[in-house]
Sequence to fold (353 residues):
Amino acid sequence: MGCGSSTPATETRPAPSSSSSKPAAQAGGSSAGDGKKSFDSEYKRGKTLGEGAFSVVIEATNKSTNESFAVKVVTKSKLTKEDEVALKDEIQVLNELQHPHIIRLYKVFEEKDFWYLITEKMMGGELFDRIVAKSYYNEKEARDVCKILFEAIGMCHDNAVAHRDLKPENLLLRSEDNDSEIKIADFGFAKKVLKPNSLTTQCGTPGYVAPEILEGNAYDTKSDMWSLGVIVYILLGGYPPFIEQNQRELFRKIRKGNYEFHEEYWGSVSAEAKDLISCLLVVDPSKRMSAGEALKHKWMMKDSKELEGQSLDTNLVELRKYNAKRKFKAAVNAVILAQKMTSLGANFKENLE
Fold:
């Protein structure tokens, strides 16, 4: 898809999906929203797993099958109209996306005061936490992660869906004992792209957001590829390509695509890996690599034995430091912002020169 047009476009929203999702066999019970059964009649509530501005995530057990799920309980009265539309978009998108590396939505209940989204429970924590716990780390391991991410996001893009908030916090593991069961989570900003360059909402996370979003240009799925470029850079280098304490300076660097491969950390990283990043962190989205193109890149096709020999142990030390800072910052900013429009910071436009 072409991208980067400076012509304003209206962000067209598709008709919201039915409140009932087609339940998977694992979820059991009746179809959601059929008026016959309530959430509490089918599921037994468990402990709280997390909280947001208008939702809480709890553990819940299906009373018929005894299987455990994560349930996002959304309080309707706390939703703005924009939030409600975004929630319906999230439900529609997740109903359409059935992929082994995308978090699964099994069922939805819409009741008088609450929405209940039944999803698979991710027991393995964040991907980055698993990586930094390794004793040894090499380019093959990083490449294996990239392959999964490109395939999963490629599937989203093939289905005309932009995630719009790809970052380490949204890369989760299903279990504690399998490194390959990576799942992309949190489709709260996800949006159907009905035609190229049809999205206009400025949303995302500072440090990972694409320059065209900051510029206020209409955009599409290519914005996700920029975010993946940032993630690949961190996976290989151990720190982000764009990092500034001052948000104005951070946004300036992103908009200009101003980053570098510091010799101290990148001297031993293969040239092909750096080339892949250079093809993703391209300011002009029309020239930015797609997920399909990334999968065919020479680094992605490189011999596994050769990549195993490319140690990233030095950069793993940096990745541990970065991950600790990231986790600390997340703890400080534990209250999730209530509205999408403030996801880049309440006064982010003041930081755009």
